[in-house]
Amino acid sequence: MSDLRDLKIAEARDGLRRGEYTSRELTAAHIEAMAPARELNIFITETADQALVMAEAADKRLKAGPAPSLTGIPLAIKDLFCTKGVRTTAGSRMLDEFVPTYESTVSANLWADGAVMLGKTNMDEFAMGSSNENSYFGPVLNPWRAAGSKDNLVPGGSSGGSAAAVAAKVAMGALGSDTGGSIRQPAAFTGTVGLKPTYGRCSRWGMVAFASSLDQAGPITRDVRDAAIMLTSMASYDAQDSTSIERPVPDYEAALSGDIRGLKVGIPEEYRIDGMPPEIEALWLEGEAWLKDAGAEMVPISLPHTSYALPTYYIVAPAEASSNLARYDGVRYGFRKPGTGGSLSDMYEATRGEGFGAEVQRRILIGTYVLSAGYYDAYYLKAQKVRTCIAEDFRQAFESVDVILTPTAPSAAFALGAKSADPIAMYLNDVFTVPASLAGLPGISVPAGRSAEGLPLGLQIIGRAFDEESVIRSAGVLEAAAGFDARPENWWDSAK
């Protein structure tokens, strides 16, 4: 039944309703693919037995009459979302044995619409990373390889496991989270579609927190239509989340009209950064031409505070992480260093020193430093003011344009270990995605071309707050024009 894995969500939805196959058959085909894909290290926890039970329930629901779009569709869930009765680790030793007694709101919405859970995907520890090399459970491997090479590549991060699952056709879609680009950048690296909704569109309740003013759930899929279907199911108002915004959830799939005539597309001059690879610049220009040919108008715009976005992010996000991760002390739940003698402080130090990985410790230290009494005004308070300026740049730009087109990442996927010794080089991977995150805006990455080595490259569309419909409509046109249909060779074949 390997051909069932070639289906996209919309295609599978229609086939299930026509009775061409069952959800159990569809789910079994993906479970079968999970075994050989274990060497990609995609999943932390597999839930095959539970998936088959959910699939059988979906089949009964389909037979009973009309059912939601995701009924019977097998999905992967980033291990940042609490799943009742299923281990949730956030990629960390600190939560290695944590089994929640509750379900995150976003995953609960998916299950209410009949989706099937294949398992929990690997990720950078506590979502801190751009390569998925920071997991306690080991790095995820990108199913793509450069032409003529057997070198392993990173899938991007922190939602690298979710992106790799979709790219390798182990799941039809996946739930990810985006703090500074953690959905969009891995989507670009794996030739998938990654959608970050507006901050507050999807509930954060039941997500393991990294940076509370930035974290947002979103889908990773194989095309824009599938992302729209998943977002329609995921999004909701949630009174349990104080940052959730109460407003109607549109039918995002209906936004895919294919008509962008008269749409004004902003091209920010500040995103043409020094040292940008010529192939990224060429793809960006090609994206402009595709949208222009479809009837859109290209409008040069300025986002003058763009150069300050990365340093601002790497003050604000670590500061919030320092506060959020203070709860992991070895007392209430999670890992505790065994056999620790001495004082309570000794136990704290030993537990946090062994429970957190190097990148998480680095960000906690940065965050604690910028929040300290002597540096709060100089760093954290100033960063918050710059964040306001960045948001204002976007607000002014959207007075004259409807969406903004940029590259997603400054390069294609790089080799495992190539940047792990240089944190600054790693952080620069988020240079195009962080500004929209700081402003709380929706953004989507669409696979639009390939590098000289045959690796996928993505283009990003950013929209106004809560205007995911314009983002999705534009992305659908961009996707159709790009015609990106390349898929990675089966890694097990190319490795022979």
User: Overall 3D geometry?
Assistant: globular
The helix content is 25-40%
How many helical stretches? 16
How would you write the strand order of the largest sheet? 1-3-2-4-6-5-10-11-9-7-8
Protein model, in words:
With 496 residues, the chain is α/β, with parallel strands linked by helices. The chain has a domain at 2-262 and 413-494: Amidase signature (AS) domain (Amidase signature (AS) enzymes, Alpha-Beta Complex). Helices cover 37% and strands 12% of the residues. The chain has 16 helices and 11 strands. It has helices at residues 9-18, 23-34, 48-64, 105-112, 160-167, 184-190, 224-234, 278-293, 309-324, 344-355, 358-371, 376-397, 423-427, 434-439, 468-482, 491-494; strands at residues 43-46, 74-78, 116-121, 173-178, 193-196, 216-221, 264-268, 297-301, 403-407, 443-450, 456-463. The protein has an 11-stranded mixed β-sheet with strand order 1-3-2-4-6-5-10-11-9-7-8, with helices on both faces. α4 (105-112) links the parallel β2 and β3 (116-121). α9 (309-324) packs across α12. The longest helix is centred in the C-terminal third of the chain and has 22 residues, at 376-397. The mean pLDDT is 95.
